[in-house]
Design a protein that fits this description.
With about 400 residues, the protein is an alpha+beta fold. The protein has four helices and 18 strands. Strand 9 and strand 10 (about 155) form a beta hairpin. The chain starts with a helix and ends with a strand.
Length: about 400
């Protein structure tokens, strides 16, 4: 008996040693949601599989779209997506689910959703009883809690979603408590002067990824992007931009170029796109080069001077890496993310800076010449919303 006990001791000791390592690996692993693409049979008034209705009692649940209430927009991922509405009787819709493991207090996380607004979402007004279009822009709020619909802590929220094409909205949050449930809900533009009828479409929820709590560092980068220096003295003027991109340059410092017209607030509008001319990366890399700082500082000044503006940073490549489309999308996404993280590191709210990679899908010049390829390899800034 003593001999058998002695043989078991090393195994028990090894098991005890292995437990902390296993727990640490689990803590660093992404938290994967159930049915993150909201896939189900299209149906009105019934939540997608894996999600729980968190709307007010007596109101219809959210919808699996497209196909209901005249909503016809194709899904951005998979075949279906979630439709949420806010109503003129002060009710709104949401869904929740239990997480496979809790988000933890003090840990930083990244999370994203593909969001847009339907131009047509016809239903009945709860106040007048007449058919109306639920098309007023609304926002999305993300809650952590201890039950399916427990709005214990607001983890993140978007600006007003005016875009009618799918965009990826990225969130970074640090819970103050440990929460085993996540809720996603639509909500009104605030402050609320009066309740409105609006909608938000939701698709392609990412895993909730634990990340370092340093916003200046890209969590998935091999080395941090350009370190943020102390904010410069804010200029009363808007930044300067040009329309000719210059990317993937040699390591030598580029020759100076003449300045062009300023961006003026009075001529800005939602959807306007500006290209960042003096933004530099090495070929097939996404670490921002030091000589890019003046261009990024100009963009930072602009956002500080226009606190109501929300932008999307869009990355684009040429087709030089054909047929590796996945690499093109990854590279363009990481370049856009590097710019977004630089701005957030300087103090711009992460709810004001979205990013998305488009790969080689939207060339501005034919990819048949070196000059055309050079112009297509670019990073752009698009004005998503203004005036709240």
């Amino acid at each position: 008996m003593r001999s058998m006990r002695n043989k078991l001791k090393p195994w028990c000791f090894s098991l005890v040693l292995a437990l902390p390592f296993g727990m640490s690996a689990q803590k660093d692993a992404p938290i994967v949601l159930t049915n993150p693409s909201f896939e189900d049979l299209p149906k009105m008034g019934e939540t997608p599989a894996g999600w729980y209705n968190c709307g007010k009692a007596g109101e219809t649940p959210p919808d699996v779209q497209p196909g209901g209430w005249t909503v016809a927009k194709p899904a951005n991922h998979g075949q279906t997506y979630l439709g949420l509405v806010v109503r003129d009787n002060e009710t709104w819709e949401g869904v929740g689910q239990r997480l496979p493991r809790p988000v933890e207090s003090g840990q930083c996380y990244e999370f994203s959703l593909d969001l847009c607004r339907a131009e047509l979402y016809l239903s009945v007004s709860r106040v007048t009883g007449e058919d109306v279009n639920y098309a007023v822009p609304a926002r999305v709020r993300i809650w952590g809690g201890m039950g399916y619909c427990d709005a214990r802590e607001l983890l993140a929220e978007t600006s007003i979603i005016t875009n009618t094409r799918w965009l990826t909205y990225n969130f970074r949050f640090t819970p103050k408590g440990n929460y085993t449930y996540l809720m996603i809900e639509a909500y009104y533009k605030t402050p609320i002067l009066f309740p409105t009828n609006g909608n938000v479409l939701v698709d392609n929820a990412s895993a909730i990824k634990p990340v370092p709590c340093n916003p200046d560092k890209m969590p998935d980068a091999k080395k941090p992007p350009l370190a943020a220096k102390a904010p410069p003295k804010i200029s009363p003027t808007a930044p300067r931009v040009t329309t000719a991109p210059k990317v993937d340059t040699p390591s030598r410092k580029p020759e100076p170029k003449p300045a062009v017209a300023k961006i003026e607030r009075k001529v800005m509008k939602t959807g306007k796109i500006y290209r960042l001319e003096r933004l530099y990366f090495d070929a097939n890399k996404y670490e921002i080069k030091p000589e890019s700082e003046p261009e990024l500082t100009s963009l930072y000044d602009f956002l500080v001077n226009n606190p109501d503006v929300v932008i999307e940073v869009g990355g684009h490549t040429n087709n030089a890496m054909w047929p590796n489309e996945a690499f093109a999308e990854e590279l363009s996404t990481n370049r856009a993310k590097a710019v977004a993280n630089w701005l957030v590191g300087k103090g711009v709210g992460n709810d004001r800076v979205q990013y998305k990679g488009y790969g080689w899908k939207y060339p501005i010049q034919p990819n048949t010449t070196p000059e055309g390829k050079k112009k297509n390899q670019r990073v752009e800034v698009k004005v998503l919303t203004m005036n709240g």
